[in-house]
Design a protein that fits this description.
With 103 residues, this protein is mainly alpha-helical. It contains 6 helices and no strands.
């Protein structure tokens, strides 16, 4: 399937939108890292920034969680590595929250 051809103006708008999304994700990750916002609040958001973020990327934003620990947590709960937040089921969200409440 061929990509649609875009005008220069459409390309610039798409680039700006992508930059805005990256900045919003970076801000959210920074808030999580500093503890200004909790995982529960993030999972409850109906926000395209959060919903399109990979679960592993979100978990790695938490204090004391790196790539290895995030991967281990996801495999224990049964979340695929490529899963995005919008694709999480109710039980998976509850399991994630329970894991981090115990810690």
């Amino acid at each position: 399937m061929a990509l649609p051809s875009l005008t220069q103006e459409e390309r610039m708008k798409a680039l700006e939108k992508a930059q805005d999304m990256r900045k919003a994700r970076a801000d959210l990750r920074e808030q999580l890292k500093k503890g200004e916002i909790k995982l529960e609040e993030v999972l409850d958001r109906d926000d395209p920034v959060v919903s399109r973020m990979k679960v592993s990327y979100l978990l790695e934003s938490l204090p004391r969680v790196g790539k290895v620990k995030a991967s281990k947590i996801m495999s224990e709960i049964g979340i695929n590595e490529s899963r995005r937040v919008q694709g999480l089921g109710k039980r998976q969200k509850e399991a994630l929250l329970a894991h981090f409440q115990d810690s």
